[in-house]
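Human: Respectfully, please carefully check these tokens:
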Amino acid sequence: VPLIAVETYLTRSFSGRDIATARWHQRVMGSWILAIALLIAALVYVWRDQLVAGHGDLAVVAGLIVVAYGVVVLARGEAAGHEQFRPYAIITGAESVLRLAIAVPVALLVSTTRALAWILPIGPALAGGWWYVTRASRGLSTPILPAGETTTPPDSPTRFLASTVIANGAAQLLLAGGPLVLAALQAPPRDVSVFFVTITAARIPIVLA
């Protein structure tokens, strides 16, 4: 939910003429993503017995996944704001394709859930990182405004993120918050898995509608 809000805000910010302010917003959003990743990693580690069968290293994986997908939304937000829709589509498609391309040989050679978990951040990190490697070649430099012309910077990204996350988070609370509540109540891993699978299955009609 927070990552969707990041992409939406950056699209708006980069669609304006004040690219310097948009770059600053991008750095602020990057700080938000890093803070969220650290929080998620800490929660998974604290409740590692209930969530990941006691494997503390998977808390690191959880944090890396947030960072990797954070790179994707930062890149897609900038690409959409610049109306670079072809790179946007490449980033979106490459994330899934790369993840699958890496997962298949790992599953065949190692065939453990922990090994598959560790490769999950690689696809989105590569897909989002591609935008920053190729961005300079697209001529996306800071525009020079005519003399005397000023721009009004967008609203504070902190206010936007906080309000959007709260609003959208309410709809996702049952799915995202339920497993954490069960973990806090010391529910066994089996119950956490059953809850997550059941709620996810119940959301399928909503997604397809």
